[in-house]
Amino acid sequence: MIPTVEKTGSPEGKRQLRRLLDRFQAADPACRQSVTEILARVRAEGDAALLAYGRQFDAPGLAAGGLRVGEEELRQAYQLVDAPFRDSLARAIARIQGFHEREMEDSWLQTREDGSIVGRLVRPVDSAGLYVPGGQGGSTPLVSSVLMNGIPAGIAGVRRRVMATPPAADGSVSPHLLVAAQEIGVDEIYKAGSAWAIAALAYGTETIAAVDVIVGPGNQYVTEAKRQLSGQVKIDMIAGPSEVLIIADATARAVDVAADLLAQAEHDPLALAMLITTHPPLAEAVQAELARQLPRLARAEIAGRALAERGVLLIAADTAEAVELANSIASEHLELLVADPWSWLPRIRHAGAIFLGAHTPEAAGDYFAGPNHVLPTMGTARFASALGVETFLKKSSIISYSAEALAADAEHITRLARLEGLDGHAGSVTVRLQR
After folding, report:
1. Fold of 29-111+120-235
2. pLDDT digits (tens, 9 = 90+) for 378-387
3. Per-domain boundaries in the chain
4. Measuring CA to CA, which of 96, 203, 276, 324 is 20 to 30 A from 345?
């Protein structure tokens, strides 16, 4: 179950690096076809399809008219969570809110001497759908997903924020999710999961009005549904399995490195836990720590599979090589467990989130530090960014010409228009000069 240690320059090390650089995966054909059929059915049948899928896969007794979480269930949720949870929730909300408020963009105008005015108008979308996975049938409510998706949308000024999440077998939604949603101002919540929830948010049904943006994590069916509907709506990203890359030198503690690798591996059998170290004895010590810590996990079977099938332990010649490899891999999470992590930060070009120093586990970013934990995976950090306030904003260009400004620019506009064979464009300028 524990991965072998390889040098980056060895044949096996090179093979592993090639695999890491080519890890983007689309959904398999069977999944794509299933999702296409689900989307078509929801578009045609609306609520009836949602109820049918919900009864088949989630809650057999899901009642007609029971897709939306009612006011009584929302109120009762507060009686079913304890005070320590409420305290942690409030503190997490404050941290995430404070960080994302810095992301808000302003509209701006630029006035030129000739009287022309150009600029950019920044406006929120009207509505956003927040998808929250069920979390092992509701037994592990993903509260952090509610906060990381819903708070930036609220800061952006989105008027209507809608949450969709699969119900438990008894038709309920975790009270922890319901309280978290209400605490950030979301009370329009629907009992729908997987691809049919994404379809409902995109197309709309009798009960659920369509939205403009859909965000949130999910399994391959959720991801594929978002991919197929991208363009109909805006989505946050095409996300793959969670991943962490740890760069560690001789100053790192094996117990910390192993714990952080396991924290990633326990997500999913497809999770990717990677270590690149410059200190061979550390790699061996990490192997021993993985073997010691793994049996203690509640999800030991999942983490063990992830390590055995996808885990990577590599030895680099030096930190510079490790950093360049990290830039090529462009991981979702990058930990710098080295003597002076801040000195290496300027050389990091591609990573979803960067964690600096021995006291900064990736888990801090998942829940409490403030930055968003919805991050690009599968190497897409080369061009993609974390979910943020910008995800829920759109920009409109502003252009205003005075008569003098148009006269001054007319020759250039018409020349370029006629070069492209668009006489009508040129004419729309020259007609104004004849007044």
Report:
1. Rossmann fold (3.40.50)
2. 999 999 999 9
3. 5-25+240-369, 29-111+120-235, 401-434
4. 96
